[in-house]
Amino acid sequence: MIQTITLIGAGNLATQLGTVLQQKGIQILQVYSRSVESAKELATKLGSTFTTDLAKIRTDADLLIFALKDDVLETVLSQLDINGKLIVHTAGSLPMSVLANHSNKHGVFYPLQTFSKQRELEFSEIPICLEASSPEILDRLKELAYCLSNKVEEIDSAQRQSLHLAAVFTCNFVNHFYYLGNQIVQNNGIDFELLKPLIQETAAKVMEIDPFDAQTGPAKRFDEAIINKHLNFLEGQPELQEIYSFVSRSIFQAHKSK
Does domain 4-155 have CATH number 3.90.180.10? Predict the structure, then answer.
C-alpha cells in the first residue's frame, strides 16, 4: 500500500489531490513548486514540508506524483535522479512514455475533472483513469485510486488523449460560452443569475438523454430569421459573430440529415 507521497506541483489539481490524499491518511512528505508562496501554502495545508529547489526534492516516498503543466514536466524530470522510483504524471494529453526514460516504475494517475483551489469536490465521484508500465504497478495504483474514488478506469495513452480532447469541448469550451453569455447580458444590464436555471437544466438533461437528442434552439432547425437577428445584434463584435455562425453551422450540419 502506498503510504507516503511527494507531490511535485502546487496548482489546482495538486491542491485538490493532495488534500484528499491527506484526508485518507496518506502522508504527503513534501510539496515542490517553483513558487515559494504556492509551495508553502499547500504544504502548510497538508502538514508537510516544501521546497522550490529541484535538488532537494524528496525521492524516498512510496510514490512521486508529478502534477505539473505539460510544457515543464520534461524539464523537471530531466533534473531528477529517480530511476527505480515509482512515479506518475496526472496529464490527460501526455503519453505515459514520457516517463519511461526516467524510471522503469511509472504510470499515469489522471483524475477526470475540472479543478479550482477554492472549490471543494466530492472526490469519490471523480473518475480516475490509470495506465501503468506493468501489472504490478497498475495494481498499486488501483489500490490508491480506489481509496479516493468509486470510479477507476484503466485506459491507454491514446484513449486518454481522446478523453482529454472531449473534456476540452465539454468543459473548457462550454465554460467559455458561459463567460461570453455573461458578457452579453452584463452589457445589457441583465443579471447572469437569470441564466443559471437554464445552465443547470442543460447539464442535468444530458445526464439522462443523449446529447444529440438534447439539442434545441434555432440552429438545430435552421431558423434563419432568429439567427440573422442574433447576428445583427452582435454587429460591431465580429469575433462573436464568427463564433455564433460557426457553431450554428456545426449544429445544423449535425442534425440536418437525421
Answer: no
Exposed/middle/buried for residue 255 (C-beta within 10 Å: 0-12, 13-18, 19+): middle
**Cα 148 from Cα 127, distance rounded (Å):** 10
CA 188 to chain centre: 33
- Cell 459573430 belongs to 241
Strands 152-154 and 49-51: unpaired
pLDDT digits (tens, 9 = 90+) for 94-149: 999 999 999 999 999 999 999 998 888 899 999 999 999 999 999 999 999 999 99
Q: What is the DSSP letter of 56?
A: G
CATH number among 3.30.565.10, 2.160.10.10, 2.60.40.1190, 1.10.1040.20, domain 160-255: 1.10.1040.20
Between CA 163 and CA 224 the distance in angstroms is: 34
